[in-house]
Amino acid sequence: MRSIRRRLIAVPLVAAGVVFALTGCDEAQLHGYLPGFVAGQPPATNQTQRVSDLWVGSWVTLLGVGIITWAIIIWFAIVYRRRRGQTGLPVQLRYNMPIEIFYTVVPLILVLGLFAFTAKDTSIIETKWTSPNVIIDAYGKQWAWDFDYNKEQVYEQGVQAQLGTVGGNAGKVESKLPTLYLPVNNTVEIRLRTRDVNHSFWVIDFLYKKDMIAGQTNYWDFKPTRIGTFQGKCAELCGEYHSRMLFLVKVVSQADYDAHIAALRAAGNVGLLGSQYSKQDNVSATGAANSAEATAGGN
Q: Could you tell me if 174 and 284 are in contact, meaning their C-beta atoms sit under 8 angstroms apart?
């Protein structure tokens, strides 16, 4: 009877402690320390909160399973320990059907539940816009990026990491990052392709990445919802300067986006680079061509 009373008192206290601990979490803790969130501002994209919720929910579930498992282990280690004066072995059981059913069915339910939530969120994230406001053809190449603004018929050709000697410095790496501009609160579709080996397009704060596979096109549809500059990188090992294959994404107002498109047009970047299997003369800022490309004739 006393044991039941203790449990009735302990359960509400534990629940209250959990609620109190969660209410004391700051912005970073509430989102599992993931990037893409700034206090008082919307998430980086329309998908960022969904990814965060799946991440945090999965970890809370796993943490709960871990706490229960360790509690049971510690409980049995204490309650059923060998006491002074005891000899021999305790009563041995071949099996306990209720317990075996429990530890078979419960993990199965947890795995199926996590799979269902993951499949649901993935299906929503992977849904393509019917008529996106902005279409970007993004090309990965060793070791930079090209961006075609498809509807506007202008492009930005990225130059970053270079092989060989540049300006007398062996192995020097150019650091001018390719920059992709996107208008805030507009639907965006990015069509991902590679000019050579496999790459992976990853905008860190957007909490999502898609692979660039040779010979095929992948799609990523989303809506940027917060103005700012976000870091991107290749997330697929692709050669010597993979770690320097960086880029920026600038989410700007519609007016600033239009101004950038006008600047590209004024600079002569009119038309589209296209999807041909080529690194598009990945030339350094000093005008020295990539030595590997120069040998291969730019292809």
A: yes
Q: Which domains, ranges and CATH numbers included, belong to the chain?
A: 11-82+91-125 (no CATH), 134-273 (2.60.40.420)
Residue 192 has pLDDT above 90, yes or no: yes
Q: What span, in angstroms and rounded, lies between the C-alpha atoms of 161 and 44?
A: 28
Place of tokens 């697929």: 236
CA atoms lying within 13 Å on the CB side of residue 269: 18
- 175 Cβ contact partners less than 8 Å away, ≥ 6 residues apart: 160, 244
Give the CA-trace dihedral at 274, 279, 280, 281, to 10 degrees.
Answer: 180
Rounded Cα gap, residues 181 and 89, in angstroms: 72
User: Concatenated DSSP letters for 137-175?
Assistant: EEEEETTEEEEEETTTTEEEE------SEETTEET----
The reply to whether the predicted model has a pTM over 0.85 is no
H/E run at residue 91 = none
- Identify the H or E element spanning 234: strand 228-234
**Does the pLDDT at position 290 exceed 70?**
no
Q: For residue 46, which of 140, 182, 155, 177 has the smallest C-alpha distance?
A: 182
Q: Which amino acid makes up residue 61?
A: T
Percentage of the chain with pLDDT > 90?
Answer: 33
